[in-house]
Specification:
By secondary structure, the chain is of the alpha/beta class. The chain folds into 2 domains: 119 residues, 3-Layer(aba) Sandwich (Rossmann fold); 173 residues, 2-Layer Sandwich (Dihydrodipicolinate Reductase, domain 2), CATH 3.30.360. 34% of the residues lie in helices and 28% in strands. A 9-stranded mixed sheet has the order 14-13-12-11-7-10-9-8-15. It has a 6-stranded parallel sheet with strand order 3-2-1-4-5-6, sandwiched between helices. A hairpin with a 5-residue loop joins strand 9 and strand 10. The protein starts with 6 loop residues before the first strand and ends with a strand.
Length: 328
């Protein structure tokens, strides 16, 4: 078997998701070698470096100047993503970036063009799309298990965060649309594989911090399939989608952030029939890291993932423009 050299990665940003999920996944992956981490706070950066047995850089530019870093993982506040994606690409680094990689379609289009021009991989971290459960659902739909698709609905809601949480800072692209709202929108794109048009949206906005706390949006496909998405950070936890057809429906829970050891359950119902499919557990983040590694090494193309990131950026813009806002 051909031996592929490990991909050397530098982490820009000492985020909570990097600490809990991404950097441990890098450590466990045979194809990744974490070289260094860069942050603004020297003590925090040093703590990350010690835990993950790598070097500490106290400036993002210092990390980008390192010859031993081939790729960058960005987990900065959302408002800083586009700037540092661009700087990383211009420094000759491949980029894996937390969502959103851009706050508007113009930025997204510019970054996609830069990645294409430089021949570098730019991948946004929507790990859930790589989980095999969605392929299973798609096969059931394609095989006619629920007849013709009539509607799709999805929700991603979480409990409130502490008052000072970054998600409430508008200047750092805070608010729930770009935090939780993008997930059900991306799920609709994944499962329906069609262009979506936004028709209406309603969002609750906190007056004091000017942050969107929750929202609903109604969309359609060109063939008239209705799409309803719900999102928010003032709810109980939900992460699910449902597909309804002319002869039945499908329901899947915990679709966006399932633990690596969680076996997904797909529920199929038709008239007087109900059936559950318990699937094998999968580590969706490890699968995404594998896609990134193979893409950088030229062993696998990322296909339409970049195009879909751009389309998602357009959808979130349209939801924000169409929305009626209620201040609370």
């Amino acid at each position: 078997m051909e031996r592929v050299e490990p991909l050397t990665v530098g982490a820009v940003g000492c985020s909570d998701v990097a600490w809990r999920r991404t950097l441990p996944t890098f450590q466990a992956h045979d194809g990744i070698r974490l070289v260094c981490v860069a942050g603004r706070d020297p003590d925090r950066t040093r703590r990350y470096a010690e835990r993950f047995s790598c070097a500490a850089e106290h400036g993002y530019e210092d990390l980008l100047r390192r010859d031993d870093v081939e790729a960058v993982y960005l987990s900065l506040p959302g408002a800083l993503h586009a700037e540092w994606v661009e700087r990383s690409l211009l420094a000759g680094k491949h980029v894996l970036v937390e969502k959103p990689y851009a706050v508007d379609p113009q930025e997204a289009s510019r970054l996609e063009a830069l990645a294409a021009r430089t021949g570098l991989v730019l991948l946004e971290n929507y790990a859930f799309v790589h989980h095999p459960m969605h392929d299973h659902v798609r096969r059931l739909v394609d095989d006619g298990a629920i007849g013709e698709v009539r509607s799709f609905s999805s929700a991603f809601t979480i409990p409130p965060k502490p008052y000072g949480d970054i998600r409430y800072h508008k200047e750092l692209t805070g608010g729930t649309l770009l935090d939780t709202g993008v997930y059900p929108l991306r799920a609709a794109m994944l499962m329906l594989d069609a262009d979506l048009e936004v028709h209406a949206a309603v969002m609750r906005r906190e007056r004091e911090r000017d942050a969107v706390l929750s929202g609903d949006a109604l969309l359609t496909t060109p063939s008239g399939v209705a799409v309803h998405v719900e999102f928010g950070m003032e709810h109980g936890y939900r992460a699910r989608y449902e597909i309804h057809g002319s002869e039945g429906g499908l329901f899947v829970d915990r679709v966006f952030t399932p633990p690596a050891g969680h076996p997904p359950v797909v529920t199929l119902w038709r008239q007087n029939h109900r059936q559950e499919f318990t699937l094998e557990a999968a580590d969706q983040l490890a699968l995404l890291v594998g896609v990134f590694h193979r893409a950088v090494r030229g062993r696998e193309a990322i296909g339409t993932l970049g195009e879909r990131s751009l389309r998602l950026s357009m959808l979130t813009r349209d939801v924000a423009r169409r929305a009626v806002y209620f201040d609370v």
